[in-house]
Each structure stands twice: as C-alpha cells, then as structure tokens.
Specification:
The protein has about 200 residues and is mainly α. The protein has seven helices and five strands. It has two domains: about 90 residues, no CATH class; about 100 residues, no CATH class. It starts with 5 loop residues before the first helix and ends in a 7-residue tail after the last helix.
C-alpha cells in the first residue's frame, strides 16, 4: 500500500475543521486563515514525529511509536519533509533537520528498497532540500543514493526493476507500474542537470 506523505496526513487531520466552515460566507475564511491552520497542523504533526519517532521512517500517531519500512531506518519522514519545513517558514527546524541528515544518514545499507518510493521520498527530498539550501553534502547524498538505484535500470527493457539492494545492487521484482516509472524522470532528470552528467555518477 502506498505510504501517505506527511502533507496528506496533515490535510486529513485538518479537513474536519474546514468542513465545519462550509455553511459560512466565503469572506469569513480568508486565505490567511487557511494558511495559518495548515501551518499549525503541520507543526503539530512535526512535533509529534520529533518527539516519538525521530530518526525513524514514520510515526504511528495513535500508539505514539514508530515504524520503519525496512530492516534499517532511512529517516524517510525527515528527508521527505525538508522542503515543507522551509516553505512553511519553519527555518530553524529546517536547518536542524538538514544538519541531522548530513551528520547521520548513510545509504550504504544491505536492504532491498522499492525504487519508486525511495526515489520520490528520499531522492526527491534530498534534491529539493539542496536546491533550497545549497548544502553540498545534500547533493553528495543525492548522487550516492541515485547511483545505488541505477542498477535497477539494467533490465531487458530499460524500465527499472521494482526493488534494488542499496549495498549490493541486486534487483528483484519484474513487474512495476508504468506511471510510477514515468515519474522517475523528474528526480533523475533534475539530478543529471545539477551534476551535468546524464548517468548521475558524481
């Protein structure tokens, strides 16, 4: 099952609050009101993750515990949330999270990861955070991760296998969703543009 991003979780939490405003005049709920509500709910979700699941892939809000997607955590929520932290003007939290990622994240792990999810959540999160901050270490991490995903594309069709081992490059899963495959061009294309290398090898 597809994992729900933190932004979608925030929307799911705040929708009931908005639904109570349906009967009101439009001018009663300004764009500033909506923005403030979204920002507040994101902050609530982020602080919950920070307190109960920091460094792990996702928070289980009902039990106040965490869950990792694989045998070792990849801090998926942190990396996937970096651009949102910046855009919602939580600059201090953004800087703290970036520093934590730089000092703690390694993709040299003997785990089989799903190419699509790893691409959109981790590679995309690192690239966007690099474009925002200019932190070269984030670009280095992006290149390292992309190179570890590249063996998945060594297939008879050129379309990637569904899973790849980040340490060994071993692939598995012959069947994948063409729509998911198509989206990979965004992150890999952006990284190739940033590195001026079509193969993303730094």
């Amino acid at each position: 099952m597809r994992k729900v991003s933190i932004i979608l979780l925030v929307w799911m939490m705040i929708f009931p609050a908005f639904s109570g405003c349906i009967g009101k005049e439009k001018e009663d709920l300004t764009a500033e009101d909506i923005a403030a509500k979204i920002r507040g709910e994101f902050w609530f979700a982020w602080k919950g993750y920070e307190k109960y699941a920091w460094g792990h892939d996702e928070l289980r809000p009902l039990t106040r515990t965490y869950r990792d997607w694989y045998e070792e955590p990849l801090a998926i929520t942190i990396i996937d949330s970096l651009d949102s932290l910046y855009l919602l003007d939580f600059k201090s939290e953004f800087e703290n999270a970036v520093n934590w990622v730089i000092n703690n994240i390694s993709f040299d792990k003997d785990i089989d990861v799903q190419v699509f999810e790893t691409n959109i959540r981790l590679l995309g999160g690192l690239i966007s955070a690099y474009q925002i901050s200019g932190e070269e270490e984030l670009l280095i991490l992006s290149i390292d991760l992309a190179n570890r995903l590249l063996p998945a594309f060594d297939s008879p069709t050129g379309m990637p296998y569904r899973f790849v081992n980040l340490k060994t490059g071993k692939v598995s899963g012959n069947t994948s969703n063409p729509a998911e495959i198509g989206t990979l061009s965004l992150e890999f294309g952006t990284l190739s543009k940033l590195t001026k290398n079509p193969l993303v090898i730094g």
